[in-house]
Design a protein that fits this description.
115 residues, 50% strand, single chain, mainly beta
């Protein structure tokens, strides 16, 4: 497994942007598809998007399509979540994941979008 550490969260106004980063340890990073999830207060964890091992394909939940972009740099063991046109409903703790539900999770980074 890999160890994951997210960063880049913060407070932003509606319409603003943030870029989240997820740093992975271990030499097997490129063998994992990576995903971002989020958990809003009082809600279940929600899938945000994912990227294939090579970075050639990405997938997003409908609510973030056209606003969020996932990318990765396998040479640096990094995955990113660029979030634009942020809305108050994007407020949540964001987690990166490797290997699915039973795989590795980071500690999360808080994103707060003020109205």
């Amino acid at each position: 497994q890999v160890q994951l550490v997210e960063s880049g969260g913060g407070l932003v106004q509606t319409g603003g942007s943030l870029r989240l980063s997820c740093a992975a340890s271990g030499r097997t990073f490129s063998s994992y598809a990576m995903a971002w999830f989020r958990r809003a207060p009082g809600k279940e964890r929600e899938f945000v998007g994912a990227i294939t091992r090579s970075g050639g394909s990405t997938y997003y939940t409908d609510s973030v399509k056209g606003r969020f972009t996932i990318s990765r740099d396998n040479a640096k063991n990094m995955v990113y979540l660029q979030m634009n046109s942020l809305k108050p409903e994007d407020t949540a703790v964001y987690y990166c994941n490797a290997g699915g539900d039973r795989g590795s999770w980071g500690q999360g980074t808080q994103v707060t979008v003020s109205s």
